[in-house]
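Hey team,

Filing this mostly as a record. A colleague (T.K.) asked me to run one chain through the structure pipeline before their review meeting, and I want the input and output archived in the tracker in case anyone asks later how it was produced. No errors, nothing strange. Just documentation.

Input sequence:
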Amino acid sequence: MSLHTTITRSLALGAVAGSLLLGSAQAANENVSASVSLDFNSHFMSYGANVWGDRDIGQQSLLFQPSASLEFALGEGSAIYTGVWADINDRLDSSGYTVEEVDFWLGYYFTIEKFTIDFTLQQWMYASEVEGIFDVTVSYDAMFSPYIKAHTRFEAVGNQKRGTIFEVGGTLFETTVGTVSLSVPVATAFSFTEYHGGTDGYAYSLVGLNASLPLGISDAYGAWDLHGGLTFYHTDKGFTGNARSTYLTLNVGVGVSF
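Output structure:
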C-alpha cells in the first residue's frame, strides 16, 4: 500500500471515528468527550528503546501513528477513558505501509485536592503476540505539573522482561505566543529490573519543545489543531539496547476533540 493511499484511508477512518465518537458523546451527555489525532513521527521511542532503528530525521520514512480516545466524566474530578493507537510503517515491508502494532487501553483517574491518581490497563498487540502493560501515574496540579509514573510490563513478548520503569517528569516551561501554545516537557526514568533485557538502573532522559496551533474550524466540527514538536532523548545503551545514546525525534500531526 502506498503512503498516499494509507494517508487517504487513514484520514477517512479518522473522520468516521471522529463522527462516531461525537455521535456517542451527543447521544450520551455533556460529560462525554472524544478526540482523534493523526500523527507522523520520525522515531518510535518506547520507554527509552528505539524500536525501529537508529537513523536520524530525514534518513528514513515517517511512521504514521493515529489514535482515538473517549472519556466519560464521573464527577468530582474522576473519569473513565478508553482508546486505541496504531503504528503504521514500511520498516518491515518494503512494498508499502502496513499496520505493525495496535494498542488498546482502559483507564480511570480521580483527584484528591491537587493530586490526580491515574490507572491505565493496556494491551499492545504486535508480532502476533500481546504485551500487557499497567501504568499508575500520580500528578500534582502546581508549577511545572510534576508527576511520577510506574510503568509495569506484566505480560512480555519474545525476549522481553517483566518489570517496572519509574518515570519522573513535568513541564519545565509553557506559554502562548499569539494563538500558538508552546511547552517544554522533561522527564527522566530508571528501573530496578532489567526491563529491556539489559542492565537495570538509569534508563533515559528527555526534553522536548512542543507547539499547538488551533485551526479555527467551526465548533460544529470539533476543536481542530495542528501540533508538533522535537524531543531530544539521552538513553543508557546498556539498559535500552540502543545502538546509540542520543536521539532527536520529530512529531507532527493534526487533531480534533469534541
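Quick notes for T.K.: Confidence is low (pLDDT under 50) at residues 1-17. The chain has two helices and 15 strands.
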